[in-house]
From TrEMBL:
GO terms for molecular function: oxidoreductase activity, acting on the aldehyde or oxo group of donors, disulfide as acceptor. Residues 14-291 form the Dehydrogenase E1 component domain. The keyword Cell cycle does not apply. This is Unannotated protein. InterPro entries: Alpha-ketoacid_DH_E1_comp, DH_E1, PdhA/BkdA, THDP-binding. Pfam families: E1_dh. One of its GO terms (biological process) is branched-chain amino acid catabolic process.
Length: 339
């Protein structure tokens, strides 16, 4: 039994390390002009990997734009993930195949979708369940409130997983809620669970229990996983303008990967060979991402107009023409910087 537990712990550690490497490589590619944007997940690996590991194959996840660990763990090709942020894809993968919806950019918008899908599961008579991921900032959105009302009234098999990373871009969580977010669950008539979002084992246990409750017909659960967004909101953001570096350093001491590694080593379950294997795998993943992204074709800005409407729309057509003229007004330079 102990060895089985250690096997799972090693897998959790491996997945968190790979997620962090995936994330850091994407940030670097963004800085090099190879990707247009990226929402870093640095510091939130335990919340994402723990919750993802709690899911079964038939379950369905509705992520935000930051749940790279969940998307990757559900089997989505990492290169398909990158294509979205290079402007080459509008969705990236087949949701039905992987059991995970596309990234949702509109804050909180995925929560009503998750509840609707969960209500569909009820009608199908299966014992699958759904997780809706969102952040502390999304709790101020009407979509999240409405989703929780519907889920509770219809006892939908859905888990609301809030990653409270303390910041909604530059807005601190104490400006989002006067009381802990988890306390809102009582108002909807559902259980609320507060978990240390930097403890991957705790996240795994709590999420498994909530999903099982949903499968058993017990209805929805709200999980608040307290963690910290160690990086920027996106690569277009500068958190040093609004965050206290001392607080960030304090949270760095709660690093979820280091925390699990220390436990594994204390229990004699992570030798040098295992750590070297994980490091080698992370290097290969980074090389794969870097090579494939740099080999991709360049996206063209005008493609964003292609699927905006299902039929000709004069307003969109006019905007496309105007934007095309604007793009043509720039001078083309060669590698030597000559026009």
């Amino acid at each position: 039994m102990t060895e089985m537990i250690h096997d799972e712990m090693r897998l959790l550690y491996r997945d968190m390390v790979l997620l962090r490497r995936l994330d850091s490589e994407a940030v670097a590619l963004c800085r090099q002009g190879e990707l247009g944007l990226w929402a870093p997940s640095l510091g939130q690996e335990a919340a994402q990997i723990g919750a993802a590991h709690a899911m079964r194959r038939g379950d369905f996840a509705f992520p935000t734009y930051r749940e790279h660990g969940v998307v990757w763990h559900r089997g989505v090709d990492v290169i398909d993930m990158m294509r979205i942020f290079r402007g080459l894809s509008n969705g990236g993968w087949d949701p039905a195949k992987h059991g995970v919806a596309p990234y949702t950019i509109v804050i909180g918008d995925q929560c009503p979708h998750a509840v609707g899908y969960a209500m569909g599961i009820q009608r199908d008579g299966t014992d699958d369940a759904v997780i809706a991921f969102f952040g502390d900032g999304a709790t101020s959105e009407g979509d999240v409130h409405e989703a929780m009302v519907f889920a509770s009234v219809f006892e939908a098999p859905v888990v609301f997983f809030c990653q409270n990373n303390q910041w909604a871009i530059s807005e601190p969580v104490n400006r989002q809620a006067v009381v802990p977010i988890v306390d809102r669950a009582a108002g909807y008539g559902m259980p609320g669970v507060l978990v240390d979002g930097n403890d991957v084992l705790a996240v795994l246990a709590v999420t498994r229990e909530a999903l099982q409750r949903a499968r058993d017909g017990g209805g929805p659960t709200l999980i608040e996983a307290t963690t910290y967004r160690m990086g920027a909101h996106t690569t277009s953001d500068d958190p040093t303008r609004y965050r206290d570096s001392a607080v960030t350093e304090e949270w760095a001491g709660r690093d979820p990967i280091k925390r699990l590694l220390e436990q594994l080593q204390a229990e004699g379950a992570a030798d040098a060979e295992f750590l070297a294997e994980v490091e080698d795998e992370s290097e290969k993943l980074a090389t794969h991402i870097r090579t494939e992204v740099r080999a991709m074709e360049k996206g063209h800005p005008l493609t964003m107009f292609e699927h905006a409407h299902g039929h000709h729309h004069e307003g969109s057509h006019s905007e496309r023409l105007a934007f095309g003229e604007y793009l043509e007004s720039f001078e083309t330079v060669d590698e030597d910087g000559l026009a």
